[in-house]
Amino acid sequence: MAAHESATLAGKPTDPAPPGGGDPEPAVGHGRGRLAAGGLPRFVLRRLLLFVPTAVGAGLLTFLLVKIIPGGPAYAKLGEEATPEAIAVVERQLGLDRPLPEQFFGWLGSALLGDLGMSFQTGQPVINLIVNALPVTIELVVLAILGTIAVAVPIGVYAARRADRPVGRWIRSTSGLGLAVPDFFLALVLISIFSVGLGLLPRLGYPRLTEDPVGNLYHVILPVLPMILGGSAIVIRQVGAAMVDALASDYCRTARAMGLPERVITWQYAFRAALPTVLNVVALLALGQLGVTLVLEKIFVLPGMGSALINGIGVRDYPLILGIVLVYVAIALVVNLVVDIMAGIVDPASRGA
């Protein structure tokens, strides 16, 4: 009888309730049920409706910015010594002699139908150039995010569990210093050590993942490492702060008083409460890493979206610039949508935000 009562006290019926109240499993299941029953389609639709105005705004801003940059596609093609007559001929061929509103809305209408135009520089469809470059950038970002989660989340949790000890303070201080170091500087340091100094990792070259998976992973280690190190500094601090608050909460104190193992308290209760914060940090990190690739792809001479965008800006390739920006906007909206859905499953109350 005593053994049965002890087992009951240690089981789920007496587990402390997580944030929001109620038994842990029914609460999560009920949230998923409501999300799937009708909340999810409306939730997704609201986010999707933001795409068109966001794309229009981003496209217009980019269009105006590239127009005020000195020079133009005709100068990039013909050189600075080109005559005004030759410049006028090229601009007429490219359709740049039309009024600016006509140029923008003509591009926008075609873009919304899936036609991003032709590259001024190569004469190829912009969509083809993006299809070739996008997998490179996506691979870098995905590997960086996975590596950052694998490294930073356990360290952040560990630092939170030892927040009042020297090791916890050292981790927080070190991650704070990591925030001050630019990723491109980390890349140059890593190149000096692992490529130039030790000769362990290649700086140049990019075999396609579909053609040579092993060689591909070997060549992307060095570009991905600075992204992981820079991203880990952010995630460690954010996860650590969220976990410190969660571990100090009433339900975690109740769990300790009931004699639950610290490992169970940490991962089943505290980490679950901190999970929405973790998801938001990862989403922001993914978007930030897209910006990081702009520089790293040039440093490592990778044929990704960042290199294509910088090259396009250099030669004033307006259709390529606008097409890449539009894809970046779409990626940002998709990432936010996925994270919002996951946060809605973890914490159904967040769907109303």
Automatic annotation (TrEMBL):
CDD domains named in the record: TM_PBP2
Positions of region (Disordered): 1-32
GO MF terms held by the record: dipeptide transmembrane transporter activity
Keywords associated with the record: Cell membrane, Membrane, Transmembrane, Transmembrane helix, Transport
This protein's GO CC annotations: plasma membrane
Transmembrane spans: 48-69, 140-160, 181-201, 221-248, 320-346
InterPro entries to which the protein is assigned, alphabetical: BPD_transp_1_N, MetI-like, MetI-like_sf
Membrane-protein topology: Multi-pass membrane protein
Domain of life: Bacteria
Protein name as it appears in the record: Peptide/nickel transport system permease protein
